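Sharing a chain and its predicted structure for anyone who wants a worked example. Both blocks are below, sequence first, tokens second.
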Amino acid sequence: MSTVAPNSPCISVCSLDPTGHCRGCYRTRDEIAGWIRMTAAQQWSVVRACEERRAAHERRPAAARL
């Protein structure tokens, strides 16, 4: 694991979906708000969680993605 912090996953599409995840980066409100105070390891953990959330979102039927 790198001790270098990742760039923020924000892509400036800032809107929470019904599950509480950002439609752009897939972070939760708490993850977004706390990003700047997280350690590099915590940020990498959030990045991995976002990747998993994005993949799960893409596996859902199109009608359920709204």
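Comments welcome. The radius of gyration is 12 Å.
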